Amino acid sequence: MRVLVVEDEQLLADAVATGLRREAMAVDVVYDGAAALERIAVNDYDVVVLDRDLPLVHGDDVCRKLVELGMPTRVLMLTASGDVSDRVEGLEIGADDYLPKPFAFSELIARVRALGRRTTVALPPVLERAGIKLDPNRREVFRDGREVQLAPKEFAVLEVLMRSEGAVVSAEQLLEKAWDENTDPFTNVVRVTVMTLRRKLGEPAVIVTVPGSGYRI
Fold first, then answer.
1. d(CA 38, CA 48)
2. Do 111 and 9 fall within a single domain?
3. Half-sphere exposure (CA, 13 Å, Cβ side) for 78?
4. Which of 121, 60, 52 is nearest to 94 (CA)?
5. Cis status of the peptide bond prior to 204, with omega within 30 of 0
6. Are residues 15 and 113 located together in one domain of the fold?
7. Number of domains comprising the chain
8. Is 158 within a domain?
9. Which end of the chain is more exposed for a tag (fewer CB within 10 A), N or C?
C-alpha cells in the first residue's frame, strides 16, 4: 500500500510516516498543501493522510482536488478540532474518514488499512493463495502452516502479489506500491527482494517470473 502523509507539524508527520513504514507501507511525506498537490499529480496513492489546517493550500482544497480528479485514492483527514460540525464538514467535501488529534497510533493504522482495502475490489481480511496465508493486520505470514518471518519490504511485496489474485504484477508496479518516491527507479531492489522472498517462502517456489512482464503467485 502506498500512502501520502500531509502534515505541517514535521515531527508528527515524520513519526506517522515511520510508524506506517514499520507496517510495510510505502510512505511519502510533505508538509504543506501545495506540495501535496504536486505529489498527487505524479504518483498514485491508495490513501492520503491529510491534515486539514495546512499552509499554502488548505487541506479542504487538497481534498476537493482529489474528488475533482475522480481518483480512487481514499482520504483520512486529521484535525486538532474534535467538533462534530467540523468532522461533518470534512466528510461532506470528500474525505472518507476523519480522525481528531491527538489520536492513538494503533487507531490510525487500522483506519489507513481499512481505507486501503476500499481502493480495490474487496478481499478477505486474511489473504490465502498457493499455500500462503497472509494477515496484513497481524503482520503474519504462513507457508503450509509454517510461520515465515519477513522484513517490511518483503511483506509489502508479498501482499501486493497476493492481492493481485494471480494477475501479473510488473516490477514497476511493485516499486510504486512497496517503495516510496526516494527509491531509484533503475535500482534492482525489486529483483533482489523477490529473490529473498522466494528463499524465505521455501520450495516449491510459488512466485513465478513472467519474462518481460513481471511476477505472479
1. 13
2. yes
3. 24
4. 60
5. yes
6. yes
7. 2
8. yes
9. C
H helix or E strand, kind and range, residue 4: strand 2-6
3-state DSSP call for residue 209?
A: strand
Domain that holds residue 72: 2-117
* Predicted TM-score of the model (pTM): 0.67
- CA-angle at 160, arms to 73 and 200, nearest 5°: 155
Q: Domain boundary at 96, 117, 138, which?
A: 117
Determine the pLDDT at residue 90: 59
Cα 33 to Cα 51: distance, rounded to the nearest angstrom = 9
Whether 122 is covered by a domain: the verdict is no
Q: 162 — alpha (psi -120 to 50), left (phi > 0) or beta?
A: alpha
Question: How many Å separate Cα 146 from the centre of its chain?
Answer: 26
Express each pLDDT in 91-102 by its tens digit: 778 889 989 888
Count of positions (residues) in the chain:
217
Mode of pairing for the β-strands spanning 74-79 and 47-51: parallel
Domain CATH for 33: 3.40.50.2300
Grid coordinates belonging to 142: 504462513
